[in-house]
Amino acid sequence: MPSPNQDDRPAGAAIDTLVLHYTGMRSGAEAIARLRDPAARVSSHYVVEEDGAVLRLVPEARRAWHAGISHWRGMAALNDRSIGIEIVNPGHDWGYRPFPALQMAAVCDLCLEILARHPIPPINVVAHSDIAPDRKADPGELFDWEGLAANGVGLWPAAADAPAPAGAPAGASAAALLSAIGYRTDLPLPVLLAAFQRHWRPARVDGVADAETLARLAGLVRMLGA
């Protein structure tokens, strides 16, 4: 189901980031219509419906318009270098709910296919909320990032991977760890912590650097070798 909302990627741009979103609309049909509406000026490369059906809207070689103002690991304008997947879910404004097993299986298979085609490191498999933490909350705390990581898509640090950092105030430690992971550093710390928690500590999304959040931050940094 092609979308007209696409254009050329910049010359020589490498595809090295995979961004996962939820649609955040009342129905999949409504979301797909918007992603294909020239007046909306938004799109994604793929849509995964709740029954596991996968639709391609934009070829991977082309730039889709899904990330908006975005930053990750020193990169900005991530539409230039990313592939975007919209996952049908009403989101926090329309009755946020768990993602069905068939849908998650289809997302996992699609991600693995994309990762086989492009040199995307695991840390660059990100949520929309990671790359735009002051604007976005998707795909949110009900999304099964842990299950994806167990199947080779992205990273998942266990709280036991590292102790909470010692020798510095919790806030200072958290800021340094968030920067090492790849979050932008010019936003309030609670905003960045909440984004991290939505992805890597979904049981508690409050923007507070408690011991488990610090341990997961440190664990992820250790996985990166930073």
TrEMBL record:
CDD domains given in the database record: PGRP (cd06583)
Coiled coil stretches, renumbered: none
Reactions catalysed according to its record: Hydrolyzes the link between N-acetylmuramoyl residues and L-amino acid residues in certain cell-wall glycopeptides
Xref: SMART domains: Ami_2 (SM00644)
Keywords: Cell wall biogenesis/degradation, Hydrolase
One Gene Ontology cellular component: outer membrane
The UniProt record lists the keyword Cell wall biogenesis/degradation: yes
Residues annotated as domain N-acetylmuramoyl-L-alanine amidase: 3-140
MF-aspect GO terms: N-acetylmuramoyl-L-alanine amidase activity
Keyword Cell wall biogenesis/degradation included in the entry's annotation: yes
EC number(s) on file: 3.5.1.28
Pfam families reported in the protein's UniProt record: Amidase_2 (PF01510)
Family matches, as InterPro entries: Amidase/PGRP_sf, Amidase_domain, NAMLAA_amidase_2, PGBD-like_sf, PGBDSf
Enzyme class per UniProt: hydrolase
Record GO biological process: cell wall organization; peptidoglycan catabolic process; peptidoglycan turnover
Highest rank taxon of the organism: Bacteria
Family recorded in the similarity comment: Belongs to the N-acetylmuramoyl-L-alanine amidase 2 family.
Protein name per the record: N-acetylmuramoyl-L-alanine amidase
Lineage: Bacteria, Pseudomonadati, Pseudomonadota, Alphaproteobacteria, Acetobacterales
